[in-house]
Write a structure and sequence with these properties.
It contains eight helices and five strands. With 209 residues, it is α/β, with parallel strands linked by helices.
Length: 209
């Protein structure tokens, strides 16, 4: 298949399992302080002009402390990244992810939340403590609130937030899997979807079952 936007054939460069292994290896290097980002050579830039072949697509939070390229020790062109507060799913986000599947053919999709997520924390405050954030933020939090329905509001704040972050990741995954595109890809067996949580304290990415 040719990409109607940037042109050129796209053939997956690795399997979903290989892509996941690359992410885990890159994060291990990051945690051990072994990630280095040398000055990009002109040859690399010239090659990237021809097109992109990312091996994974990541839906993550906009939080400045969680840059996926650094966290996974990835280089230019390695990852197709969508970032939005609370790693929530909206129409434009879903369309971007569908583009990654249909035209970039990334074999692996990751929904990644993180410890201390401010958007999830605001959703907790709205649901359990009656907080009322400004209008457009309320629209954002509406995407997170359903993930809190089955949580125990009596948990200590830190535990409640951690449980809410993971529940929010799992809800976004369910929405993706239940979409027509997600169900079609599942039947084909061509794409793998995984959830993950980034630990601010350690730099470790914990992949969910």
């Amino acid at each position: 298949m040719r990409n109607p936007i940037v042109g050129g054939p796209f053939i997956p460069t690795c399997t979903a399992a290989e892509a996941l292994a690359r992410l885990k290896s890159g994060n291990s290097r990051f945690v051990r302080g072994k990630v280095h980002f040398p000055t990009v050579q002109k040859e690399v830039l010239a090659d990237l002009v021809k097109g992109q072949k990312p091996y994974a697509t990541i839906l993550g939070c906009s939080d400045s402390r969680v840059p996926p390229e650094l966290v996974f020790g990835a280089g230019l062109g390695d990852l197709f990244i969508v970032r939005v507060a609370g790693n929530v799913l909206g129409a434009s986000i879903a369309g971007t992810l569908q583009y990654a599947s249909a035209y970039l053919h990334t074999p692996l999709f990751v929904v990644m939340g993180h410890h201390g997520c401010g958007a999830v924390q605001a959703a907790i405050a709205a649901k359990f403590h009656g907080a009322r954030p400004p209008g457009r933020i309320r629209a954002l939090l509406a995407n997170i609130l359903p993930a809190l329905d089955d949580l125990d509001a009596t948990l200590p704040p830190a535990q409640l937030l951690q449980a809410a972050v993971e529940s929010n990741v799992r809800r976004t995954m369910r929405l993706l899997l239940d979409s027509p595109e997600g169900m079609a890809r599942s039947r084909e067996g061509t794409v793998k979807l995984v959830g993950a949580v980034y630990e601010l304290e350690s730099g470790l990415v914990r992949f969910l079952d």
